[in-house]
Amino acid sequence: MLTEADGGPVAIVVKGANVHDSLLLQDALEAVIVEPPNPYTELKQHLCLDKAFDGKPSEATAQVFGYEPHIRRIGEEKLDPKSGKKTRKARRWVVERTIGWLNRCRGILIRYEKKAENYLAVVQLACALLWFRRLHRLTT
Is residue 46 within 8 Å of 35, Cβ to Cβ? Predict the structure, then answer.
């Protein structure tokens, strides 16, 4: 799943559980429905990835799609900029929160569909519902 900064889903890819996340990066970036702004004429687009994407292939894929990759390296700890010590601040990740929102839909949580295409359609419908609720909440 690829989300924007506030947790709105932008792209979803459905594959087996035995496929590593870094192999799905290109598929996720190709599945983006909304066309991102041109990185050469408008604001630079940033792509924050976790340690699973540490490596040259993931960086190259992000740069091909016009993103500036921000990848935490394996073995690297987050340091407080003021004191230089490790931070232990608890933080909820944006993508995991979005997955939690999607798990409210029973059809996604249980996965009644056997075909991956049908399951992807249900997940995309739930994502559209999330965007509709966010739009409704912002306009009222």
Answer: no
Domain boundary assignment for the chain: 2-139
State the pTM of this model: 0.76
* Domain over 2-139 is classified CATH 3.30.420: yes
Q: What is the DSSP-derived secondary structure letter of residue 51?
A: G
Which secondary structure element, helix H or strand E, spans residue 27, and what is its range? helix 25-30
Convert the pLDDT of each residue in 44-97 to its tens digit.
888 888 888 888 999 999 999 888 888 877 776 666 667 666 655 545 588 888
> What residue ranges in 21-136 does DSSP mark as E strands?
45-49, 67-71
Residue 92: CB atoms within 10 Å: 8
